[in-house]
Amino acid sequence: MARGRFITFEGGEGCGKSTQTRRLGAALERMGVKSIVTREPGGTPLAESVRRLLKGEGPEEPCDRCELLLFLAARAQLVERVIRPALEAGTWVVSDRFSDSTYAYQGCGRGLPLDFVSAADAFACASLRPDATFLLDLPPEAAAARMRGRESATGVGADRIELAGDAFHARIREGFAELARREPERIITIDASLAPDEVEAAIWSHLKPLL
Fold first, then answer.
1. Is 39 within a domain?
2. Which of 4, 6, 146, 211 shows a CA-CA span of 20 to 30 A to 28?
3. Which of 200, 151, 208, 205 is nearest to 20 (CA)?
4. Is residue 106 part of a domain?
5. Neighbouring residues of 166: CB distance < 8 A, sequence distance ≥ 6
6. What angle do CA 58, 8, 11 make, to 5 degrees?
């Protein structure tokens, strides 16, 4: 049986990752491609519990090192219980975030040692790498406007990571850009300021060779 494909979506806050993750999963289903959609942190009962802690719903706020380790623990569980078994069964996996987010957020954003972050992540995911990653790039001012619009529409306030400050989010954006420069064969940068339909069309133009 052919191995499934592993596709990830990355980017800063408000870039539209979740929307495009759902759209791709729905499109694959319509095409008859066996696939699952997941997210990080999350995707298993244990990992979803970790997600709530990271969102600030726990008894106290995690320090930066604790935050990193919580993300990696959730990833290890997701890879072991969901992603790797699905890929081995020939199922495509589409994920809202994966390892690149840890490098950008906890490495570049929080300033934790990048060599350690990369090595610890490789252990957590057993060196699993996506077949293709779509980096949805959005200028900070546009991202902030989208976040305000989302909060107004849903009544849900920003979480602790979203509230980390402009400098933090600028470092994240540069961290993602660095990864894209380093791995252009895997990471495809998409202008996330385009309309959702245009973003989806750009994604499909790059994804077709994998089908």
1. yes
2. 146
3. 200
4. yes
5. 140
6. 65
Domain that holds residue 189: 6-210
Q: What are the residues facing 37 on neighbouring strands? A: 94
CA atoms within 13 Å, Cβ hemisphere of 129: 9
132-137 and 6-10 strand pairing? parallel
How sure is the predictor about 193, in pLDDT bands with cuts at 50, 70 and 90?
A: very high
Is residue 21 a contact partner of residue 37, using CB atoms and an 8 Å limit?
yes
The answer to whether residue 17 is domain-embedded is yes
C-alpha–C-alpha distance, residues 103 and 71, integer Å? 11
Nearest residue to 190 (alpha-carbon basis) of 182, 175, 201: 201
Q: What is the CATH number of the domain that holds 121?
A: 3.40.50.300
Indicate whether 1 belongs to any domain: no
Burial of 62 (0-12, 13-18, 19+ CB in 10 A): middle
- Whether the CB-CB separation of 97 and 176 falls below 8 Å is answered with no
Helix (H) or strand (E) holding 96: strand 92-96
Domains in the chain, number: 1
pTM, full prediction:
0.92
**pLDDT tens digit string along 131-188?**
999 999 998 888 878 877 777 777 776 677 777 788 999 999 999 999 999 999 999 9
